[in-house]
Amino acid sequence: MPLNREVDDHQVRAVRVDARWTLTLIDGRLRRPLGTTDNVSVSGMRFRSAVPMRVGGVVFAEILVPGKARVTVAARIVRREGPENGQFMYGARFAKVYDEGRRHLGEAILAIRRAEQDPGSGLRRVA
Fold first, then answer.
1. Is the pTM of the predicted complex or chain greater than 0.90?
2. Residue at 93 is within a domain
């Protein structure tokens, strides 16, 4: 376990899949690279970022879901590990998923799970 780890008391566990998706930080009208997801569920994500954030804080971000859409979320940071090699590892729970985002996430997660369960199905893992 990394030495510098912070955890919020209200962590939620959900079915999650490994997915390396691009995250963009939304700050008013500005958008800048935030990091990359490590795994994703419909209720949250684990991601890597060089941007320091505090446990309990809320980040507004856009997740680029391959083949689906850009999903905008407000996510509360519930865990922070690191830094290691200039990167923090964060756990975040979605406080809000905007527009059709939850459906897009659910469809992408389902496609990944199907591909993991049946490699011969012809579905390719989204990563």
1. no
2. yes
